[in-house]
Write a structure and sequence with these properties.
Layout lengths: L1 E3 L5 E5 L2 E5 L7 E5 L6 E5 L5 E6 L8 E6 L6 E2 L6 E6 L5 E6 L4 E6 L6 E2 L13 E2 L5 E6 L16 E6 L9 E4 L4 E7 L5 E8 L2 E8 L6 E2 L7 E7 L6 E9 L27 E6 H4 L8
Antiparallel strand pairs: 1-2, 2-3, 3-4, 5-6, 6-7, 7-8, 9-10, 10-11, 11-12, 13-14, 14-15, 15-16, 17-18, 18-19, 19-20, 21-22, 22-23
């Protein structure tokens, strides 16, 4: 997973390493390393002081949200739940919003730590990493699942609705619901101008990004990938660049013939099991160029 730095560089979780690099993959620097664990979803916070990410520290049995300085120093644990994921900083950099997959909650905690609090209006929303914040910090977007879906797994269930939650409307905010494209696959985010919501759709064995205006006008596809999936995507801090991290699965099939002339051999020369699929990740901007759109 990757995130943007305030100056346009990228943060990248590479196994147990937290990396910083230019968008073309150069100037790679290891900011933090934990060989016994994995660093996931690093996100630069507004103001350029901190990076937040999810980390099962030293291979712990829990995943929590951590904060480090942008040079990788002074790591600080911010949450202490069972499975805390998908950290996102508020527009003012004062709060970290995240999802607790064990309790089905969207929570927030202060950037300096403290007692987490549930975000009003988010009870019952999607329990997958699908949350986004508007650039002005006033709204949160996620998905409302059908009543017969308790836990959707890795992707959003068919029939889910887009849920837009005002964050400055007190303890009982009026949540706005919008019908989503039936090809919805997950991960809602606001466009930088806050006039539309972007999310992933799946069609003909390919995943692309769909832009749905909030004024009810027709949506449109803004990428045209012909295959593979989208792991995640993020707008740059200036709103001019959209980075897309895609997945590609490779698998090999081994065909064996039993001639009956010799006993079966199970050694290095023969495998009775096909190789497990290999999933490769790429950041589009590193391989070709960053995607740029006019909103």
């Amino acid at each position: 997973m990757f995130g943007w730095a305030t100056d346009g560089d990228l943060y990248f979780g590479d196994g147990g390493n937290l990396l910083r690099m230019s968008v073309d993959g150069s100037n790679k620097t290891i900011l933090l390393s934990d060989p016994a664990s994995h660093v996931h979803r690093p996100m630069g916070c507004p103001g350029g002081r901190y990076i937040v990410f999810q980390w099962p520290h030293h291979n712990a049995d829990k995943t929590n949200i951590w904060r480090v300085n942008t040079d990788g120093s002074n790591p600080k644990q911010l949450t202490f739940g069972e499975t805390d994921v998908a950290a996102t900083c508020s527009a003012d950099g004062e709060w970290v919003y995240y999802e607790n997959l064990a309790t089905f909650q969207v929570l927030r905690v202060h950037i300096d730590g403290g007692v987490p609090e549930e975000v009003p209006g988010t009870r019952g929303l999607s329990n997958v990493p699908a949350m986004g914040l508007s650039s002005d910090g006033k709204f949160l977007v996620s998905f409302k699942l059908p009543k017969d879906v308790v836990r959707p797994g890795a992707k959003i269930a068919a029939g889910a609705k887009i849920a837009i939650v005002p964050l400055d409307a007190g303890p009982k905010p009026e949540v706005r619901y919008l019908d989503a494209d039936p090809r919805l696959a997950g991960q809602a985010k606001f466009t930088p101008d806050r006039e539309a919501v972007i999310y992933i759709i799946r069609d003909n064995n390919a995943e692309n990004l769909w832009r749905q205006p909030l004024d009810g006008s027709p949506g449109r596809k803004i990428t045209n990938f012909q295959g593979d999936g989208i792991f995640t995507y993020l707008f740059s801090p200036d709103g001019k660049t959209l980075g897309v991290m895609r997945t590609h699965i490779e698998s090999d099939v081994v065909l064996l013939h039993d001639t009956g002339s010799s006993p079966p051999q199970h050694g290095p020369e023969m495998s009775l099991e096909p190789e497990k699929p290999k999933e490769n990740y790429e950041i589009v901007s590193r391989i070709t160029h960053a995607l740029r759109f006019n909103w």
